[in-house]
Amino acid sequence: MPSFVWGRNPQEAHDNPYEYEAQDQFIREATAVLSGLSVSLDRFTMKFHRDDTGLSKATWMLSLDLVDSLKECTELFVEKRHRIAFRLFRDVVETIDLISVLHAGNTLADRTLRDWYKNDTISHGTMRQYIQSAHGEETAISRQKFYKQLSKFTHRTYRALTMSFSLGHGDMMVPDTHSTPGLVLPHTIAEGLAVLSSLILEAVECLIRYGPLDADEVSSIFLSSLETENVPRRFSMRSIRPA
What we know:
243 residues, 2 strands, globular
């Protein structure tokens, strides 16, 4: 069975951060999934002309960027460079949502594709407009809240920055770069890996739904990357704090 980190609640991971072996298993599995997808996407190299402005080319280019961003996030967490990884999360969400908009099959999709090839920036408001029309207001609001949470890391808000600090004597703040580089709070890494796991699952679902790879191929890559025996929990799970 796969690591229980897949789809793990980030708050629960923060409250129960010491499952190092399970996190290592997740890293192995995530690396295998993303490497497999990257290899498969590479076969479209030399398949599209420079002047092509079609949907298939856009989907391939964005899918490559999506998988590469998630690979970089995974590598950054291995290196305990969580600040950059958290910033990349918003890029991943934007790419997934943009691919979804481009495949909406309506005038919004056509206009967005034309604007994208003109090198225009596609606002997340446009993407939320599609999400609301396709999946309802509740889903759109939930996505907006998630996007705003990720934006706090990009804009370096106070609470986002405190994830890089521990407390010393007398509750005095100590950055995780102090004295021993890479001495990062386990809570930060556990929470980040939980978010990463959910984003990889979203990316896999996006590729299954929209291509450019065949849906069965994407599913096969994902399932074959999961280990047959899962690492069990080492510690009893503490309850999730109320939001």
